[in-house]
Amino acid sequence: MVSKQKTILVTGASGFMGTHIVEEFLSAGYIVRGTVRSEEAALKVRRTFPDQESRLDLTIVPDMAQAHAFDEAVKDVHGVVHNASPFHTQVQSNERELLRPSIDGTTNILSAVQAHAPDVKRVVLTSSFAAMVDMSLGNRPGHVYSEKDWNPITYQQAKKALTPPVLAYTAAKTGAEHAAWDFMQASYPHFDLVTILPAMVYGPNRNATANLASLNTSSADLYRIMSPESKPDDPVPPNVLYSWVDVRDVAFAHRRAFEVPEAGGNRFFLCEGNFTNQQVADILRDKLPELRSRVPVGTPGSGFEGVDMYKIDHSRSEKVLGVKYHSLEQTVVDSAKAFLQLEQRMPVVV
């Protein structure tokens, strides 16, 4: 257990992943200061952690892309986890709504730490598999993705009006991480940097006010397979992405990235492996029989149906951070049980 005098700033504290990161640090004995965009979001976080009032402080940062946005938030903290990042699929401007907020928000918080947080020795940045994957190459049979990989998409490509928002998002995460490492090289700050690169993040929702009508992107992707609108004879939805990780493993990795001295200056790829939605459907029908009336049957046991694709190397996260990955079955079952609890609180009308 760490000293209760250690205060960690976690940006994006009200989000799906941010909530788990906050919980991970609180459970380990830290004081947490979380940033949110509104008082409504702050109330959401407080409701999630009703017994942590003395160790959870929330501060409102309405626009992280504004210069000096984090100057007050970073004061008197001992570590920073920058998790906040915009992700919208309906945008009018890739540059204004995705690229600039992600990149500027990252440089803003690093600059704020350098100027106003002398006790911070490490910043942990939530990057993404999006900053590694080359989507132009598809499934890349024979390739093994690791921390050595960088997404080659450029800022100029991403800001074009015809570039799909999902590609612009990958460029935003790539640009933000590049900007962070460039800052470290150019500024020689009093702290070091660790970046965490999760694949598609699944797992149980912890937000006390989570709503089935406005789930985060990955949760909605999973819930559609078991929602009351789904039927056994429906086709199994195609995968959006194939690589995945449990949100609890991601939260654990963020804490360990702050604590482990050897982690400094490194990227860490967080990914259990690859999966298909057919495997998810098989697990749901097998482990939660009450869902058989809604989960698509598809082709049970077909797995990847002979599709060859890239592999992943997550050994650095295991060796340095000590991550022990949840299995797909654990993640799917725990996620589904959390969705069912939400249905009881907020019934879905079909």
Structure description:
The chain contains 10 helices and 12 strands. With 350 residues, it is an alpha/beta fold. The protein has a domain at 7-203 and 243-272 and 311-325: Rossmann fold (3-Layer(aba) Sandwich), CATH 3.40.50. It has a 7-stranded parallel beta sheet with strand order 3-2-1-4-5-7-10, with helices on both faces. A 3-stranded mixed beta sheet has the order 8-9-11. A two-stranded parallel sheet has the order 6-12. The model has no long low-confidence stretch (mean pLDDT 94). It holds the Pfam family Epimerase.
What descriptive keywords fit this protein?
10 helices; globular; alpha/beta; single chain; 37% helix; 12 strands; 3-stranded mixed β-sheet; 350 residues; 7-stranded parallel β-sheet; Rossmann fold
Quick recap:
The protein is an alpha/beta fold. The chain has helices at residues 16-27, 39-48, 94-116, 155-158, 165-187, 217-223, 247-259, 277-287, 315-321, 328-345, and strands at 7-11, 31-36, 56-60, 79-82, 122-126, 144-145, 192-198, 200-202, 243-246, 267-270, 273-274, 311-312.
Topology overview:
Layout: E1 7-11, H1 16-27, E2 31-36, H2 39-48, E3 56-60, E4 79-82, H3 94-116, E5 122-126, E6 144-145, H4 155-158, H5 165-187, E7 192-198, E8 200-202, H6 217-223, E9 243-246, H7 247-259, E10 267-270, E11 273-274, H8 277-287, E12 311-312, H9 315-321, H10 328-345
Parallel strand pairs: 1-2, 1-4, 2-3, 4-5, 5-7, 6-12, 7-10, 8-9
Antiparallel strand pairs: 9-11
Helix pairs in contact: 1-7, 3-5, 8-10
Which fold name is given in CATH as the topology of one domain?
Answer: Rossmann fold
Widest sheet: strand order?
3-2-1-4-5-7-10
CATH class call of one domain: Alpha Beta
Low-confidence stretches: none
- Helicity level: 25-40%
| Backbone shape | globular
SSE series: EHEHEEHEEHHEEHEHEEHEHH
Number of helical stretches of at least 4 residues:
10
Protein name: Ketoreductase domain-containing protein
Pfam families: Epimerase
GO molecular function: oxidoreductase activity, acting on the CH-OH group of donors, NAD or NADP as acceptor
Keywords: Oxidoreductase
